[in-house]
Design a protein that fits this description.
4 copies of one chain form a homotetramer. The first copy, chain A, is mostly helical. Chain A has helices at residues 11-31, 37-44, 48-54, 58-83, 87-96, 99-110, 112-119, 122-144, 154-165, 173-191. The first copy, chain A, has a domain at 65-209: Tetracycline Repressor, domain 2. Chain A is built from 10 helices and no strands. Helix content of chain A is 69%, strand content 0%. Chain A is elongated and about 60 Å long. Chains C and D meet through helix 6, helix 7, helix 9 and helix 10 of C and helix 6, helix 7, helix 9 and helix 10 of D. Chain A binds a DNA duplex through helix 1 and helix 3.
Amino acid sequence: MSSEREPVLRADARRNRDRIVTAAKECFASHGADVPVEEIARTAGVGVGTLYRRFPDRGALIRAVARDSFSRALVEARAAVEEEATAWQALVRFLRQSSELQLSVRLAMASPLARSIIKDDPSTEQSRRAMLGLLGDVVRMAQAEGSLRPDIGAGDVAMVFVLLLRQVPIPREESAQVAGERCLAIMLDGLRARSATPLPARPLSGADLGL
Amino acid sequence: MSSEREPVLRADARRNRDRIVTAAKECFASHGADVPVEEIARTAGVGVGTLYRRFPDRGALIRAVARDSFSRALVEARAAVEEEATAWQALVRFLRQSSELQLSVRLAMASPLARSIIKDDPSTEQSRRAMLGLLGDVVRMAQAEGSLRPDIGAGDVAMVFVLLLRQVPIPREESAQVAGERCLAIMLDGLRARSATPLPARPLSGADLGL
Amino acid sequence: MSSEREPVLRADARRNRDRIVTAAKECFASHGADVPVEEIARTAGVGVGTLYRRFPDRGALIRAVARDSFSRALVEARAAVEEEATAWQALVRFLRQSSELQLSVRLAMASPLARSIIKDDPSTEQSRRAMLGLLGDVVRMAQAEGSLRPDIGAGDVAMVFVLLLRQVPIPREESAQVAGERCLAIMLDGLRARSATPLPARPLSGADLGL
Amino acid sequence: MSSEREPVLRADARRNRDRIVTAAKECFASHGADVPVEEIARTAGVGVGTLYRRFPDRGALIRAVARDSFSRALVEARAAVEEEATAWQALVRFLRQSSELQLSVRLAMASPLARSIIKDDPSTEQSRRAMLGLLGDVVRMAQAEGSLRPDIGAGDVAMVFVLLLRQVPIPREESAQVAGERCLAIMLDGLRARSATPLPARPLSGADLGL
DNA sequence: TATGAATGAGTTTTCATTCAT
DNA sequence: AATGAATGAAAACTCATTCAT
């Protein structure tokens, strides 16, 4: 679902493009945003030239990965809203299954360069907006059903969302799993309607966060 | 409080060393963990040669920055425990004033290399342990005074701590301030004793997280 | 009049070939002898594959351009000899209308590679010889009619010819026109029979110049 | 005599810089304007890094070579004016000893890129202007002494000058020598006062040629 | 000791040429 | 036969690290 100016690629070229984006995701995740382009090419099983034909520089690759991740996350978010019985359940699933975004966001934080590249990309921007809109709906519905504290805005949820995204890499697999769940549970408890301590200032919108 | 094998430097050499560490912090923060060594030297106002005399390689610099940040954070944590009236207050201050650690932790996440360097440094390790011990004390005290939910361990608090560290860079200054406060408040609500929903698994220790 | 082993091409293939040679001329002229093959293909409106089918490598293209230019120049030279009333007039027209050769010669000078390619091409070589023979005739005739100084050989005229070819690119169109004419006039004055100062050494033949 | 922003280099650095410029001249002359940077470095006996420290890209190198050549040519031109007995003699020496400029000019013509780089360089521009002024003086003096035809301007001489610069590379050494001399002699005959055929239009100034 | 010049290995990037569609 | 995608060798360029001044 990534689109740069795609003039409809030949089937094989399309396949290669996808393999490259996938490889870039993996490489960025495991070796950081500065992994040699050649390593990405090797992982994708193509020559560097092929990679450069599609992505003129590292920035284009970062953009493509971000677009891909964001658009997938959006798809998932929509599914959550549709399939879950209550708004609160949708919110929980939303927060829990944020993994699709993990990579790009981690990437985004990693280098100032990547950050600015992603920030300036209209396509990613669009996904971000759409997601924010969806989030706003869910927030309102959850507050209407009385599960979410009322002094909360979509921006606040987005922040929690982003915080959860950036899970610390924890050595032991099982611990990581548990830690993630507990963290989420603590956050959810902080978001629940009952028994909340009043928050400072007013509910944040996405705009407040520059989202 | 940074120590590599510090043979007590002459006053001016000492000054140089400090300027370099400070410059490195700034550069890492603004240009990422891969800023050219030369840029750091320029920022510090010294030649690369001088920098290399003190820090044989990039790893040494990263280590020094991490040590510096961790030790400052430790000092601050001790002050919090000493000066605050209740354990809960200490915890709040602890979580709120985590800024000193922000840079190194962000750095730590940025590149896998930096991560391993920091992980393997005994001096940072020591600060980390000390801080974890302190945190354990405060957790127990806060639970004893009934302010902190009982199904929480020092590891859980550490995770929340780290999460808060990685605040998203938010464009508008005021929003960033407010957002940070609200996020903290939500988390604190999630940590409060009253009205908590049971958490999954058991309380996490620092060891669980590899800390 | 270009021939490599031309097995008589189909009309459309022929058209393609010509478009490529023309495009190559343009590209060489505007971007130098090192313009990417792909740019030439794009200018010609064909794919690289098509270009490579006709011209196995850059050398073949250079050769083709040179052949084309030389053969056109030869045609023009013959017309000059036939149509002008006096040998001097033929010489003047010869020198003035050298533009057809401009490109290839500029190209020839541009890169040592191109130089050697052109030098070794039998077809271009043949045109060169024919032109030199023609030039020798005209020189003799002009000297016989008393218009050209006697201490001049075909080689000398060729040199002047080449010199005039390499007109400096002059910004303003009108100036360029005038400058060219004046330059030519000065040279012609230097070549005239009357009043010439004796030249050093002996008349040069084409062979002297490696032509 | 080349200057870019030279903050006074250390003696050894200066020496290296000069070696690089010299090597570049040689390499450009023998292998064209596209000779690999590494070859230039090797010829100069330095590492590529050293070359890139001084000259951030090929353009800087081209500029430096052009500056060097132009400024040397200027020095030579001044000497000619000072040391020769008559203006005509100065002019002859001027035209004959143009060799200093040969390389840069040939280079300048070779690639459109190089051409624009040289054209836009203020330092070279300055040398060009100075030389043009000098030429104007000599032209006036020579016309006053009755040796140079009166319908000639500094621009015309400059054109002849440039034409002579671009001597074709002639295979045999001795022929090249002779050919150059004869060419010069023919041109001089064309420039002489006596017996000249009126030239078209009016004397050209440097401005007319965009010089 | 401080400085910044030199080095060259590692990366990025381009482009001639081949080949599948 | 035409096209343009893929390839990889070659060239450009960067920067960590060493060393002469």
